[in-house]
Amino acid sequence: MDNQNDAAGEATGRWCVEADAGAGVTTEAEIETLVRAFYTKVRADAELGPIFDRVIGDNWEPHLQKMFNFWSSVMLTTGRYKGQPMRAHLKLKTVTPKHFDRWLMLFRETAEEVCDAETAERFIEKAARIAESLQLGIFFKPERHDPERKAGCCG
Questions:
Q1: Of 51, 125, 133, 141, which one's alpha carbon is 20 to 30 angstroms from that of 87?
Q2: pTM
Q3: For the domain that residue 78 is a member of, what is the CATH number?
């Protein structure tokens, strides 16, 4: 990526610029292969498939395009993804931490099948951090962990 494109990317709000992200980490083609293979497994999965089917229905291609943009932004710092993952996941009322564990297991399996070992590990590390962040946003209830808040809210 040249300096002109790099500056333009920063101006458009890149949100994931890390030392291990950027040119040479992966390719757009590899991202698409990984995302398509992963969601093929998700759709066939007895635990995750029904959750995704309820939310996505027959609109898989738009979802996949969004996920290509998401992972391109995460891994290549392209800034193409403009969504709000937390807001989208907060709507999923039936999702539990066990679903995230299953999601990560399938993601790891797919990344290891599609990518070389080093690239797979980068994807897996980022996926784990993303899942942790989403789980904290969805499941963490401060009043359960802070006696002062608990007393104030429920007393």
A1: 125
A2: 0.75
A3: 1.10.490.10
